[in-house]
Amino acid sequence: MASNNSFLDVLGTIDGKVQRMSTEVKTIRQLATDGHMEDAYAVSLRLAKIAERSTLLTRILPVYSGKPTAYMDVEAVIRGTVPVKVSITDMGWFYVNLPALLPKKEFNSRSYVRGYLFPALNQFFADKDPLHYEDAVIIFRHVYCRDRPERRRRDHDNIEVNCVADTIALFVLLDDSPSVCSHYSRRPFKNISPCPTKTSIWISGTTTNGFTLPGRKVWTAGRLIRHIVLI
Question: Would you say 85 and 95 are in contact if contact means Cβ atoms under 8 Å apart?
């Protein structure tokens, strides 16, 4: 087993962040009660950053106990609490649904995304052969609330988007370089309550003219993306 000192050091860091979150929550509540919503919003973003970092620390805390199964046990916890959907659609596309928008560039945000995506992919392919698209297209669909239009502004060079593509590529692509793998992004509005923000990813094989769909004619990129908007 690992030394108690390492385990307690990480635990102490987590404890400090929990105390900071408690302080921020009280500040946000007071600001919101007094009607200072802009300030409450700014502090809530700070709270979100602390919470994300705390999540990463709590994921590695069991590992510092030295128990050999710690990584697998933590992955099981993540799979049970973050509902990532992985499937092959009826049209033959590889499909991944993440229950949130991808974070923008933040400290360790890639580790956070990879932390729940990799276990889900690993479990899906545990009893399946990996897919190997030689030519492929990846389509990202970012879904957000109509009453939160600022969420529409996604960064197309977002390192978290690249992190998702790289992680998925380990299981389904022989090569994800631009010469053989094209990226498309779609950002539709949603107007339902409660509003389920999410990120959906499709991967399809391609031909020289478009997308190869089993049992169907080859579709162009434009037609396929218009179809996905209706899904």
Answer: yes
By residue range, what is the domain housing residue 60? 1-68
The residue written with tokens 């929990």 in the block is 18
Kindly report, residue by residue over 131-186, the tens digit of the pLDDT.
777 777 788 888 776 665 555 555 545 677 888 888 888 888 766 566 555 555 55
3-state secondary structure of 89: coil
Which of 13, 43, 68 delimits the end of a domain?
68
Number of domains in the chain: 2
Do residues 103 and 49 make contact, with C-beta atoms less than 8 angstroms apart? no
Task: For residues 175 and 136, give the distance between their C-alpha atoms in angstroms, rounded to a whole number.
Answer: 9
Note the pTM of the prediction, 2 decimals. 0.64
In a domain, 10, yes or no: yes
Nearest to 144 by CA among 98, 104, 191: 191
